[in-house]
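Good morning,

Attaching, inline, the backbone tokens for the sequence recovery test we're adding to the shared suite. The designed sequence is right after.
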């Protein structure tokens, strides 16, 4: 099963890019962020024609998230991040797709920092960590995929010294991300490519794409039940070079089915077991 996340940066304006990528990559499930579209203008007809069912949580001009599933409809389990009834921004959506629970998120940017937007980001991260813990406690296979607006380490940014005071890279934000990993979530890309410089975002300004001056902002975190099923992970970075592309590239993972994952866990346990 192939699961991907793509900050599309305007689903209607970049619909040709999305449809071309779906046809070429054929992901089984997709998380989209920054729809920048109200619910009634989400291009569901074109997406269905491409072979995908979808659920979406839109917002006019800003934010917005969606989950697509190839050949089926996602089974929605949650709309909106719990913990604040006054937060009406469209940043979180959750669904079951082919036996995997998928949380699609668009975490606040937080700039300028310090300030109210940064405070909101930290509160959102706290609520997200609480919900992630609840999901992990179920024992279900879960992936939390999306644009986290977090640069986890210096390896994940071109010239990190330029980002020290940015809300994407401030210590409070990176610490919150690493607390998720310490709690048992697996950063899929980093677990398979621990030393590689991998980016998922290149600004439109200052020829960032041409200079490969990128950031890794888009992540897929796997629950302990799902992590042993991870086969591959990467970035479809060539999509960033397409005409009228988003400033993000799609990130993706491939996982085995549940039975194969069980066998892999058993094989690992037997290797660790001391010989008699």
């Amino acid at each position: 099963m192939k699961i991907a996340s793509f900050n599309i940066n305007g689903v209607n304006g970049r619909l040709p890019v999305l449809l071309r990528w779906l046809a070429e990559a054929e992901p089984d499930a997709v998380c989209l962020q920054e729809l920048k579209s109200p619910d009634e203008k989400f291009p569901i007809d074109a997406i269905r024609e491409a072979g995908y069912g979808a659920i979406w949580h839109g917002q006019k001009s800003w934010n917005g998230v969606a989950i697509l599933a190839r050949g089926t409809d996602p089974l929605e389990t949650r709309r909106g991040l719990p913990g604040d009834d006054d937060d009406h921004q469209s940043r979180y959506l959750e669904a079951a797709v082919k036996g995997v629970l998928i949380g699609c998120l668009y975490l606040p940017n937080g700039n300028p920092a310090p300030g109210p937007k940064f405070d909101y980001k930290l509160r959102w991260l706290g609520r997200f960590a609480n919900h992630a813990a609840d999901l992990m406690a179920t024992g279900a296979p879960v992936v939390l995929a999306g644009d986290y607006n977090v640069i986890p380490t210096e390896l994940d940014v071109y010239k990190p010294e330029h980002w020290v005071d940015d809300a994407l890279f401030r210590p409070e934000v990176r610490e919150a991300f690493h607390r998720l990993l310490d709690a048992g979530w697996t950063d899929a890309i980093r677990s398979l490519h621990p030393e590689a410089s991998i980016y998922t975002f290149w600004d439109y300004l200052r020829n960032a794409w041409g200079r490969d001056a990128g950031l890794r902002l888009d992540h897929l975190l796997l629950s302990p039940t799902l992590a042993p099923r991870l086969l591959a992970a990467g970035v479809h970075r060539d999509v960033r070079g397409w005409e009228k592309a988003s400033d993000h590239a799609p990130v993706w993972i491939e996982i085995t089915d549940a039975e194969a994952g069980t066998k892999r866990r058993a094989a690992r346990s037997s290797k660790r077991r001391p010989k008699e």
